[in-house]
Amino acid sequence: MRASLSIIVVTFNARADALACLASVHAHAPARPWDLVVVDNQSTDGTADAVGDRWPDVHLIRLPENIGFAAANNVGIRASAGTLVLLLNSDTLVEAGQLEGLCAALEATPEAAAAGPRLVDGAGRQELSFGPMISPAGEARQKVRLRLLDSGPDAIRDRITAVMQRRQFVDWVSGACLLVRRAAAEQVGLIDERYFMYCEDVDFCAALRAAGHRILYAPEVVVTHLRGRSRATAPAATTRRYRDSQLAFYRKHHPRWARLLRWYLAARDITGRSS
């Protein structure tokens, strides 16, 4: 018997994206028992009302305040019961067979606790949705890959694209679409809520790997990620949230580098403060 699936979607002031995401899930549901939990982080644009009106069967949780992406996902996980849990961003779209395909990929890989698909943008361009553990060297490598993928020589872009189309075990997969076994998620205490948004997916995968599990990147499964909406509407706040999470990650995993990173960010006046 196939494992049941709980899909968790966290929303915050993204009504159009959220409705499109949920419509795609309903239109292309997995071929197994599944349920959908929407956790709204006190949206002020009518997102929660729109979801409730259109899909009264959805388990809708209206939070009294914006507690952040990581904590809201934990609320959704605790409110669900599926053997498998899919964390799905509200700015994603799924096509026929993809949700079932991701579940099947994870179930066929017993050593893996989590799996992520190949993400593409609205134009079909591949997103670098996996990578090495965050560290000074790891971040440098990822930035170089991103630049080369965007504007590098054709031969190098083709080589990076080929790597992105190969199934493999990785350090982390993007939290925009992250499937995890519930037992493993509970084993590591769910997602670390010190991350309001950003870096929580890398930290979560690191915790799973530290517990003896592996992370699977399954590029045969493709999900559209319309990323960048938050940055476009509130670039300063989004950058600040990212830097806060980056600092929190370094304090937890690379404490010797954390002070240097804090000084560097303060010098560039990225966070607007020195602590």
Report what the structure shows:
With 275 residues, the chain is an alpha/beta fold. It has two domains: 225 residues, Spore Coat Polysaccharide Biosynthesis Protein SpsA, Chain A; 42 residues. Helix content is 45%, strand content 21%. It has eleven helices and eleven strands. The strands form two sheets. Strands 1, 2, 3, 4, 5, 6, 8, 10 and 11 form a nine-stranded mixed beta sheet that branches. Helix 1 runs parallel beside helix 2. The protein is globular, with a radius of gyration of 18 Å.
Descriptive keywords:
disordered C terminus; globular; 275 residues; Spore Coat Polysaccharide Biosynthesis Protein SpsA, Chain A; single chain; 9-stranded mixed β-sheet; two-stranded antiparallel sheet; 21% strand; alpha/beta; 2 domains
Topology:
Elements: E1 5-11, H1 15-27, E2 34-40, H2 47-54, E3 59-62, H3 69-78, E4 84-88, E5 92-93, H4 98-107, E6 112-120, E7 130-131, H5 136-151, H6 154-164, E8 168-170, E9 172-173, E10 177-181, H7 182-187, H8 200-210, E11 214-225, H9 229-233, H10 235-253, H11 255-268
Parallel strand pairs: 1-2, 1-4, 2-3, 6-11
Antiparallel strand pairs: 4-10, 5-11, 6-10, 7-9, 8-11
